[in-house]
Amino acid sequence: MKQINGKVVYITGGTKGIGKGMAAALLKEGCKIAISGRKLSDVESVVSEFNSKDVLAIKSDVRDYGQEQAAVQKIVDTFGHLDIVIANAGVGIFSSIEEISIEDWNTMIDTNLTGVFHTLKASVAQLKANKGYYISIASLAGINFFANGTGYNASKFGVVGFTQAAMLDLRNHDVKVTTILPGSVSTNFNNHIPSELDAWKIQPEDMGELVVDILKMNPNVLPSKIEIRPTKTS
C-alpha cells in the first residue's frame, strides 16, 4: 500500500492489548479506525480515550457471522469503504486434555479460528473492491505445541493454515494477506495484568509499529507469514 493515510481499518478485539496498540499506531498514520468487541461499553470506553471522530465503536462477537456482516456494513455506511481488516480477537484457556471442558474447547475454536473466518468472509468483497489488506493475529503457538495447549494450539495452528490458504486465494485479486505470529506480548490476555515484570516482552506499541511497516511495504512485496518474538527471554 505504501500510503495508508485515509485508509479505513477494521480491528476485531481492539479494546486492549495488541488490538489497542495497533489502533493507536494506525490512527497516528491518518487512518480511520473501527474497533469491535463483544461488550459495547468496553469498546466505547476505548474509543473515548482516542477522542477522535475517526474512531468508530462497534459491538460484534466474531463467533456470529451475522454480527460480523453487520459490523462491516456499519463501517461502510460510516466511512464509505473498508481497506484493511485485522482479525485480532482471541481467547486462551489452558488445561490438559483430561481437564479441558467441551465449552472451553468450543470457545477457543469458535473465537480464535471460526471468528477469523467470519471476519474475512464478511469483508472479502470490500477488500477485493478496494485492493485491500487482511491481517490475522495468530501466535507462535500456531507452529509450536505445548502441554496444556490442546485447544489453544489447535485454534492457532488452524489460523495459520486458514490465513495462508486465503492468501493464495486472494493474491491474484490484488488483496494482500498476512498472518503475524507473536511470541510473549505484554497484554491483558488470559486475565494477565501487565507490570514492570513484563518489560522484556513485546509491547502492544511494537505490534502497532510492525503493522504500519507491513502496510507500507512496496506493493510488489507480500510478507505472508511473520514470526515476532522478544529479543531475550525473561
TrEMBL record:
Family: Belongs to the short-chain dehydrogenases/reductases (SDR) family.
Superkingdom, natural source: Bacteria
PROSITE patterns registered for this protein in UniProt: ADH_SHORT
Keyword hit for NADP: yes
Coiled coil spans: none
Alphabetical list of InterPro entries matching this protein: NAD(P)-bd_dom_sf, Sc_DH/Rdtase_CS, SDR_fam
Designated name of the protein: SDR family oxidoreductase
One example GO MF annotation: oxidoreductase activity
Record keywords: NADP, Oxidoreductase
Keyword Iron-sulfur: no
